[in-house]
Amino acid sequence: MSERSDEYRPGSKEDFDRLYRNSYPRVYRTLAAILSDPEAAEDCTQDAFVQAFQAWKRWRPDAPAEAWVHRIAVNRAISYRRSAKLRSLGEIVRRLGRPSSPADPAEVAASSDVLTALRALPPRLSAAIVLRHYHGYNNREIAAALGVSERTVGTRLRQAGEKLRALLGTAFLPGAAGAFPSDNRELYAKD
Amino acid sequence: MPKTEGDLLGRDFARRLRAELDRLRPLYSSPRYMSPMRRPLRFAPVALCAAVAGILALSGFVATGSPNPVVWTQRVVTVIEAPSSTGAPPPAAPLHSGESIDSRGGSEPRESPEAAESPEPAESPEPRESPEPADDHSGSGGGSDSGGTSGSGSGDH
Question: How far apart are CA A14 and CA B50, in angstroms?
Answer without folding.
Answer: 33
